[in-house]
Amino acid sequence: MRIAFFVNSIETETPGYTTTALALAAVQRSHSVVYVEPGDFILRPDDDLAVSVAVLPDAPYKTSGKLHAALQDAAKQKKTVAISDIDVLFLRNDPSLDGTGRPWAANAGIMFGRLAAERGTIVVNDPDGLAQAQSKLYLQSFPEAVRPASLISRSIAEIRAFIDKRPKGCIVKPLQGSGGKNVFHIAKPTDSNLNQIFEAASGDGYLIAQVYLPEAKAGDVRLFLMNGLPLVRDGKYAAFRRVPAKGDVRSNIHAAGTARKVKVTATMLGIAEMVRPKLIGDGMFLVGLDIVGDKLLEINVFTPGGLTRLADMYATDFAASVVAALEEKRTLRQAYGKAMTNSRLATL
């Protein structure tokens, strides 16, 4: 099986990324791995879809570091192949990273992912589902019971009024964005730096204000779901607690948060069950839920990260389970052909 990982940039990939862990697991299970960047697709006059790929050389990679080094060399000599030579296209880019500097690249995975799916390549997560989830607005389409009270607006007056009714304070952040950038905790509407916060956060467009959950002081829990269900291997859940740095409201690892083991509770599993029907309907193969208390703060569907940390934390290779699930999808594709839609196959 040949698996193509679509990323923002091969150059900025690291040995610690979840995508690298997935690639390593695929190679160790005797699959061919290639990487694709936003500018690599080619739609020819005869409607054939081709793609320029960095081919990871066949080798017994034992560490992600060696695989990453080989990938950087492979990126210097890309090869063009037909999309029919790709069994699985795994979309693992973060559109928000390209939204400003390379707006043409932000939606390339979704656009060409659709074309690839039409031609029989298995595309995960399903590109039509990802198109619905290009901002934090996606969370609002899930049951109210699992989400914190929120307001989405660019009106400072509306946001002030919302904050005024929340004695425990609010979190304000851009509707588009990732990695904890421009996330602020506003304790009360009279905060002296409120205007500066609005100015900083609203530069990215719409803002989302969420009621502050006191449980967030202990961080949030990242719980992976695969095929709509909690990812479990060897009796262990793919989940960890992200604890914010001292004095910081953000628990993102990119924002100096730390990862710790966590016991998955019935409440967390209840949230996962509540969101499962829509995630399956949207073809969301692999996602990360960010949970605080009994609420869901975000659903990460583009590049949920943390599998490398989980492997170290629990001595469990969750990435191998993900690749095994892709193998099963390829078997189903071979059996059913195009009679089974990509969105349905993505979560079987």
TrEMBL record:
Pathway: Sulfur metabolism; glutathione biosynthesis; glutathione from L-cysteine and L-glutamate: step 2/2
Name of the protein in question: Glutathione synthetase
UniProt cross-references to HAMAP family, sorted A to Z: GSH_S
GO molecular function, one term: metal ion binding
Residues of the ATP-grasp domain: 136-327
Class of enzymatic activity (EC top level): ligase
Organism of provenance: Mesorhizobium neociceri
Family: Belongs to the prokaryotic GSH synthase family.
Cited InterPro entries: ATP-grasp, ATP_grasp_subdomain_1, Glut_synth_pro, GSHS_ATP-bd, GSHS_N, PreATP-grasp_dom_sf
